[in-house]
Amino acid sequence: MAKKIQGNAAAKADGGPFPYVQGDVSKTGIEELDLALNGGVPKGSCVLLAGGSGVGKTILAMQWLFNGFKKFNEPGIYITTTEPVFKAVNNMRNFSFFDQTLISPLQIHMTDLRSIMQDLNIDYTKGDMSWQDVENILSIIKNLVEGMGAKRLVVDSVTAICYRLKDENLIRMFIFRLGTMLSNLNCTTMLMSEVASADQMYSPFGIEEFISDGIFKLEYINRNGTYVRSIRVVKMRGTDFDGSPHYYRITKEGYSFFSRVELKEMKDVPDVRLPTSINGLDRMLGGGLFKSTTTLLTGSSGTGKSLFGLQFLRAGLEKGERGLLLGFEEGKAQIYKNAKHCPEVDFEAFEKKGVLRVVCRFPEYLSFEEHLQLVKNEVESFKPVRVIVDSLSSLEKIFPHESLLDYTRRINYFLKWNGCTSILINADEGIFETSAITQGHLSTIPDNIILLKYVEIESSMRRFITVLKMRGSDHDKTLREYVIEKAGIHVKDSFKGIQGVFSGNVHRNVEQEEILKAFKDLSRG
After folding, report:
1. Per-chain mean pLDDT for the chain
2. β partners of residue 390
3. Would you state the CATH architecture of domain 28-257?
4. Alpha-carbon span 483 to 472, nearest angstrom
5. CA pair distance 157, 52, nearest whole angstrom
6. Quick check: 18 pLDDT over 60?
7. HSE toward the beta carbon, residue 370, CA cutoff 13 A
């Protein structure tokens, strides 16, 4: 990352100082983007907006122009090179940042390069402009900027001009002269660069990016059939910047960025337990789950994972603690129906009272960033004490494994940071196989891991529960049978006289049985 320019240490092409000083920036007016730019684009810079069709280059440039005048009283110029001005205006009408009343020679001036070339008697169609033609165009642009005192200028697109220059030296000199000229006038410039294929990083000619002061790379990414737009600051002379991808949607307001869920460590770790109120489980946990911890509840289909989560929520709701259920597998009506198995609890009534919030989304309809945004928005607005995410495995069908790990890691830190005690439900594929949660580093993320599993004993399907991990606390390490009754889940005693329950290879401890039988025989005399 480049450091801030100190005073007038940098010099322009003719040896004189830049007309702007350290700290002067052209804010985009988009909070997330200005944060990534450490305040904004350094004034007088020439920035390349590079990306393919549909990423929103023109929208960003227009939003920057209109924000500039409305928020910072900076006049601007928009030069189109590929479509008439009226069409560019029509394309912006539905955006809230656009205001047609501002289009005027002294506020936001919009012009067509082809009309400028006609005034200069340059044949726009011949495709081999001379250096004198370029000088004449630059002179017109300079007069426009000086005449209205413009502080922002957009060329949409510079690629169309470069195709008519053809000669690489002409392209290099055009961008260099344009950037230097506008920098001397304290005017910040955005050049649209059309990237048509994968082998073109930032421009078709591979020249523009070296002459520009900054580069924004805009992309439209396909993630397993889910598309998301991203912008990344690749280069920005004169300032520090955040070069990681930032994801956004295009809405009526223009660019709408997804809030980033940062990885923050907790300052204080409370030594308070929240009981689950599941008969027998709290004894295994030493009194309950520690507040502000995350528990991975994993098990195969039919082991009662969702019911465990509902009973955990119920324990808090009955004390007036707010509960949040994020469901990614079933609709709200189905969740309410399932909750009827949770004894004497009307979850719908709790939601009407405002102490419970049930949010259901099918993962196929949301991108990775939208799922993170969903969790962030719901937690920050509702401020729950207990949270259930049901389930991680439904997200795994949509997102690559690395993305799922990143998602789990981020919501783990975020939920803990916000004081939530959470259960993340995960479904194992196999019914009898040993759980695969230790694979792929998933087991390192949560504070606690509880395993639910089937086992076959004497031709009967039985369920068992065990606490595999509980960070910062001792816990019951036995395998205990549990049953699902009308009164809810009941954790019973540990399995006795048998081995191999965890692995599924169950057999009786014959030696132990023979010793017990011998003692019984001795006691009888």
Report:
1. 87
2. 327, 425
3. 3-Layer(aba) Sandwich (3.40)
4. 28
5. 12
6. no
7. 17
135 token code pair: 């000088």
Dihedrals phi, psi of 521, to nearest 5 degrees: -65, -40
pTM of the model: 0.80
Q: Residue 193 forms beta bridges with which residues?
A: 50
**Ramachandran bin of 383, using left for φ above 0, alpha for ψ from -120 to 50, beta for the remaining angles:** left
CATH topology of domain 273-494: Rossmann fold (3.40.50)
Closest CA to 155 of 185, 116, 205: 116
Give the residue ranges of DSSP H helices in 100-220. Answer: 113-119, 131-148, 158-165, 168-184, 208-211
In the chain, what are the domain boundaries? 28-257, 273-494, 496-525
pLDDT tens-digit profile of 243-289? 999 999 999 999 999 988 887 777 777 899 999 999 999 999 999 99
Query: For 59-113, how does the pLDDT look when each residue is reduced to its tens digit (9 = 90+)?
Result: 999 999 999 999 999 999 999 998 999 999 999 999 999 999 999 999 999 999 9
Of 410, 400, 353, 348, which is closest to residue 379 (Cα–Cα)? 410
> What's the CA dihedral at 138, 141, 142, 146 to 10 degrees?
180
Give 399-459 as a 3 state SS string.
CCHHHHHHHHHHHHHHHHHCCCEEEEEEECCCCCCCCCCCHHHHHHCCCEEEEEEEEEECC
More confident residue, 414 or 522: 414
Q: Which of 115-129, 155-169, 304-318 has the highest mean pLDDT?
A: 304-318
